[in-house]
Amino acid sequence: MVKCIERIFRKRGSRVSTINDWLQIQIGGSVDVKKKPKCQNRIKSTKYTLITFLPQNLLEQFRRIANFYFLVMTIISLLIDSPVSPMTSLLPLVFVIAVTAAKQGYEDVLRYRTDNMVNASPVTIIREGKEAIIKSQNVAPGDLVVVERDCDVPCDLVLLRSTDPHGKCFITTANLDGESNLKTLMIPRDLPDVDLEEMHKLGVIECEAATTDLYSFNGKIELKNGEGRVLPLTAENVLLRGSRVKNTECVIGCAVYTGMVTKLQLNSRLTRNKNSTSETYINRFLIVILVALIAIVTLLYFLKRYNELFVIPKLNYLGDATDSYSVKQFLQDYLSFLILFNYLIPISLYVTIELQRVIGSLFMEWDLELYEKETDQPCVVNTSNLNEELGQINILFSDKTGTLTKNEMNFQQCSIAGRKFLFKKSRLEDDETSALLDINKFNADQRVFFQALSICHTIQVASDLSEGSEPSSTKKEPKSPGAVAKIRSGPSDMFPISDITEESHNSSQQSELNVSHAIENSVSAHPNGSNSTSTASDVNPLLVTDDGYSVERRKRPVVIKRSPNFARAANRGHNAPTGDSQSIQNDLGSVVHSAPQGSSNNRPISLQFQRSTSEKDLPQYAEAHSLSLGHRRAHSYGAPNAYLTSPIAADAPAPNVMFRSPSTTSRESYAAPMFTRQPTILVRAESQRRKKEIHDFIFTLDYQASSPDEKALVEACANLGMVYLGDDDEILRIRIVPPHVDYKRSFTSFHPKEETFQRLHVLEFTSDRKRMSVIVMDGEDRKWIYTKGAESYVFPLCANSSAARIAQTDAHISDFARLGLRTLAIARRLITEKQYQDFLVELSQANSSLENRKQLSEECYARIECNLDLLGATAVEDALQDDVADTLVSLQAAGIKIWVLTGDKVETALNIALSCGHIPPDAKKYFIIDCKNREEMLLHLNALDREVIFGMGQDCALLIDGKSLSVALTEASSEFRDVAVKCTAVLCCRLSPLQKSEVVSLIKSSNENYNTASIGDGANDVSMIQEAHVGIGIMGREGRQAARCADFAFAKFCMLKRLLLVHGHYHSVRLSLLVLYFFYKNIVFMGIMFLFQFHTLFSSSSVYDSLFLTLYNVIYTSLPILFIAISEKPYTEDKLMRTPKLYKKNTDNKQLQWPYFLMWVLFAVYHSVIIFYFAFCLFSYNNVILNIGQTAAFSCFGTLLMWTVVIVVNLKLWLESMYLSYWYIFTIVISILGFIITTIIYNVINLDFDTDIYWAYNNLLASLPTWLWILLTCVACLVPDYTIRMLQRALNIKNFSIFPGNQRKLKMREKFESTYL
């Protein structure tokens, strides 16, 4: 029986099985497509479905006290003889529920559409050797997935084939770890070469179940026809979802993890409801009001019973009292009072808050200060429920790469053989003598140093710069598919990379989220058919078989050579150029850029050059002059506000004016002899022109690096004249370009010197080694090892003979670090043939081991990385985001503690933290590195706690790495949290995405109830963003997934200052006023009802007509508070930006604390007493107030009370408002007129429903005593409010409290704690 049930519920067609928590996946997947499960790769971020929306949304809404209360009251009013119409409770409830449900449903629909765009994106797979296109959601484990250049990986794949001749695949992982640099993956070693038709018979992949660790993968391939051979699989063989293929035309991989079990999705938390902390205070107030309501109802019930037993029997005109009293009568009496006073709970409060939040979010999206003009990107508000939370932030968690920095490196200085040099574009400046050196003047040490920089890296050159390369503007001869070589999994017989350098002109656009135009339908073509003349670029080289006939061809647009520096048109058009093309031959080969005639906007930036006769004509004028202002680390070059003063004077002359100079000589001269009197300004302009040409040429090389530091160093070498041209089958080519050579001329005319090195091995960089090395062989067959890495790891590897140079270089590195520059040490040594052969043997043994492979390899590396000769050190600047230092300093002044959570190493993150002002320069820095157990962690935390306590107010910064943080989170979480929050700044390094969210969750669990915010720009930040109270995304260069999952998103980090200090402050103040005012006006409204019961023998009669009960919160008092709740400004925007300390006035919801609430309650009680008893006295002593000389009826009494209440509560709001405008005053006037007009219309209709007010209000309007009484009552009510308001301004009382004693105690406690040792 059990087996039958298992067969019924077993998923049929899946070839994925689980044995001992390991997955077994058949390469090629299931053959039967019909039985194959669908939607295994579907991504879901929505909260509701069509079935669950209504019950789940109603459940969420009725968790609110007011909604649940009114639901109960509506049911009760339908079951008993209600004193008022049940519709007065039902209609507001339905309106509130409907509006809220529509808003939340619309937001979920937007998430659903976004998911569908991803799930429905086309993906190419291989089935039985043929190409097929399916939706991304239908990819299943085992499918062979084809990923082309500049396309995103749809699921986690094991790499099986690549067009790279060496079996490599280059990717960017910006959406995973935040790094936009190029990374290298490899096909599994010794993977056999099989045809596409036979790939599904290759074998079975056995791997561990998906985990959250992005940097580890354990698995193996069991080959079917390989006599039981097993190939190990590591992380370098796996393409993760979210990564993007770059610089590789096409790859094929086998899907292993799909859908919600990919590593990216496992690092992302599920979408959850985020509630504002202000709702906690609202619920507390509601509970107090509810308790007061129960107390009032109980009191009135017992007073009614007392009157029925002892008072009414004495009043003979009321008749005989009833003898029996049943439970039904008890429920009728008690619940009648409950229904009568249910308006004490402001149900319209929630719908008004929802409207205020939605309109406030529109204001943020319309804010021009949050608009990025360059990218046409406004601020985006995805969750309007958290607007006021922007003003309550205590701790900000920030990503580093792409958030605080641009991830763009600039080479600044270097230390060579104990001497310091400054980088000056195409020259070096000696720090001591200020002498300028070019490559012709370099000595041996300087040549070897820059030679090491141009060799010790893994950079790829995207451009084809071979001398004999054919210009791309000329058409290539057509090739038949049979002429294309079949690619291999290994180095031999691979498809040549030079034949696949063409790519679609719209390939970049295909990588965007809009995938509807990404891939066109495939068509089959036969070489002998109509399409037999197609070019090789039309054929996917991975899909070419031996005979070249059975080929799946993909329709592509017309293709051109594309350089990454094309200037994008504003309309982002992607039509292929037509007509004749202009080709300009660049240097170092035949790099040709083509553009249509008459269309200068489509030309590469590198070709937009025009000779100038004046320095003012050059775009580099400002840059050249800004260099004289010195190095300012807070900003990158060219960034806004990067320098203190503007380099260009306001009265600068016209650019076409010819300047004359008394000087007839110049340091540089490019003019003919007859122009020896040429002005110096023209010579300088020529120098600027040459710098631009060098920069443009290097830009066309399109260096693709795994590290931005490497790219900056290689580009610096190219600027100096040592140009790295790329590698051809591990042969590194470096061309020496003398400074007098014009980059616009062909190099064949002067026969430049070219050096070649054969790269034998690359010893990769790891977080443990903190260095990378390459082993090369020069032209004389000598083998060298070059090492580059952190100085703390390279210096111990140097020989004793370099001790003096180490001391000098270390001093220079300290100088570089004080400038906030990233430093690397460079060393090398000559290795003998015997040493090299021993290294090969040890490395082969390490690679063949399935256990401890990483440890054995590192031990092998360490044995050859020894006795090095130190060459020097480099200093590179990581360009910061615009105004990032000012933003961080302002936020810290606002009382916000900033934690930086990054995946970078400690040294890098520390340099950035010092540069951007995250860690104050004089702060004590405490490091917790490589902590292994709880005891070590507690020792560190105790020491840090003492540093903070005995630091006498000095700033203290904590720096902790991922391993230590893992120990802290699992074994000493509370101790770590309590100590870390005391630090001025915290820097957490080498964290996984899930660790980031765990840190945020830990701080949220504190008893201090910190309000947290997280900001990031990559998919690796999504879990952190979703975990925090407020998630903020930056729509940067690392994708839009963080922005889509965030609550708020904008283009630049510096916009965070305005978002928090201005919008956060405003929304907090506005919501506080809205909440307190709602309780106030309802207490005034129901306070009069309460007093009325004492004069009606507690008969549960209503003093108001049902019309007034229904429209009071809808029309009479809703518009002014809604308007001021979206426009209130206690301070100007400029003042809030200049004075960050004002942000502290609203943090911790100070204006929603009990003193403010009770103050409003006291005013409400006072106003209700004044209004009721003024009217009661008027009607008691002389109710002949009508012009017709008659006494006023009871209906006039209730109408007069309502009229006065509407006027007083609206004028009270006027007094409490700080920002007055004509439109605001108009809303107050229109609300009062709304009462007058609706009452006039209502009282001329003879309806005998609740009370008969027929013509009652018309009589009051015609009565002069009534107007005088209203004026007197309003003055009596509002004089105390006005007096207190003026006293606050006159005496400069910042915070009014009815509990000065408690406030004084709190101040003394804070003072004591601040001086506690």
UniProtKB/TrEMBL annotation:
Lineage: Eukaryota, Metazoa, Ecdysozoa, Arthropoda, Hexapoda
UniProt catalytic activity: ATP + H2O + phospholipidSide 1 = ADP + phosphate + phospholipidSide 2
Cofactor(s) needed for function: Mg(2+)
Taxonomic source organism: Drosophila ananassae
Name the record gives this protein: Phospholipid-transporting ATPase
One annotated GO molecular function: ATPase-coupled intramembrane lipid transporter activity
Bilayer topology: Multi-pass membrane protein
Transmembrane segments: 281-303, 334-353, 1074-1094, 1106-1126, 1154-1176, 1188-1211, 1223-1245, 1265-1284
Positions annotated to bind ATP: 399-401, 710, 765, 788, 822, 902-904, 990, 996, 1020-1021
Gene, per the UniProt record: Dana\GF19566
Region (Disordered): 464-542, 566-586
